[in-house]
Amino acid sequence: MQYAKNILILIGIATLATSCVSKKKYDMAIEELDGLRIERARLVTDLSNCETSLDSSKASISVLTEENVTLTEDLNYCESSNEILIDRMADLSVITSEGSQRISEAIEKLYIMNDSIGELVENINMKDSMIANLEGNIRRSLDDLSDEDINIEVRGGAVFISISDKLLYTSGSANLLPQGEKVMEKIALIINDHKDFEVMIEGHTDNRPIAGYCMKDNWDLSAQRAIAVVRTLQENYEVDPARMIAGARAEYQPKGDNETAEGRSANRRTEVVILPKLDQFYDLMIPNE
């Protein structure tokens, strides 16, 4: 409401300016009016984004609530079954003391197993939350880059950043372009902020043979490109080398059809894979004793 009043006031000012004030003041009023219009458009866009995020969060909460209800029902069923079993055992005079002890131990293990399942579900949810937070940070950091050059997705509990070779290197070379250095700087900031993750750099090519005296084949090219990225992250942006792995895929994991120019372009890429450290991943999967 206040925003609308400001608009009306500025319109009035602009009208009076044509007859009562100098052209300079009139131009200033028009400029301020345009600024308010731009600000309003931005606020409308922000509101739409917030509503979309809220709807997504509500959907996630609904799914988690349903899963929690199911797990609670399963636990209640197990507890009820255990109580019935104990009652029946009390009525069976033929059960020996040793047999009764074994059954009690088995029931105790069942309770422990139920607790372990709960811990496992909690740990998996925590890992998924960490991955989702990481993905969001990466998307915000690389938001100014074209979708044709950068693709970000989550697969198998890891975040994959696929970067087109034309953004990073000159053709047939493993030397990073200045614009490629800027991309690595942004990625390095994310990596250094998430020290509980490992980083794997994978070089990929199309199936066209490499024609150059300094590269033997596509294995060589993809390996040199991955190594160039790792060295840049380590030497220029202080990423811990113990957290990084350089790998070569050559043309053997294509994303597109190598028979088309578009497919070959999609295949010529470098992928930065950010994933939980293996030992921490196993810790998440194995509940505490």
Key terms for this structure?
single chain; 12% strand; 8 helices; flat; alpha+beta
CATH topology of the largest domain: 60s Ribosomal Protein L30, Chain: A
**What is the count of β-strands?**
5
Mean pLDDT: 81
Structural class: alpha+beta
Radius of gyration: 30 Å
SS field, number of helical segments:
8
The named CATH superfamily of the largest domain? OmpA-like domain
Q: What's the number of structural domains?
A: 2
* Helix and strand sequence: HHHEEHHEHEHEH
CATH class assignment of the largest domain: Alpha Beta
N-to-C span: 59 Å
Strand content: 5-15%
State the helical fraction. Answer: 55-70%
The neighbouring-strand order within the major sheet is 1-2-5-3-4
The main pleated sheet reads as: 5 strands, mixed
Provide structural commentary:
- The structure is a single chain.
- The protein has eight helices and five strands.
- The longest helix is centred in the N-terminal third of the chain and has 69 residues, at 23-91.
- The mean pLDDT is 81.
- Helix content is 65%, strand content 12%.
- The chain is flat, with a radius of gyration of 30 Å.
- It has a five-stranded mixed sheet.
- The chain starts with a helix and ends with a helix.
Overview in brief:
This protein is of the alpha+beta class and 289 residues long.
